[in-house]
Amino acid sequence: MKALQLTAWKHDPEMREVAGPEPRPGQVVVRIGGARACQAQEPAGRVASRRGVGAA
Known about the structure:
Blueprint: E1 2-5, E2 14-17, H1 44-50
Antiparallel strand pairs: 1-2
């Protein structure tokens, strides 16, 4: 499965292929059809720079 991983401090996350989870007895695995990172979780400067705000 694909996972967005933080591999180093202050570096952009990387999309990687990782092994899928193996449920234990009494557990289930839920397949997520889609997800995205919320911009509210990012520092304000990164969001602004992606939108061209405050770019020199």
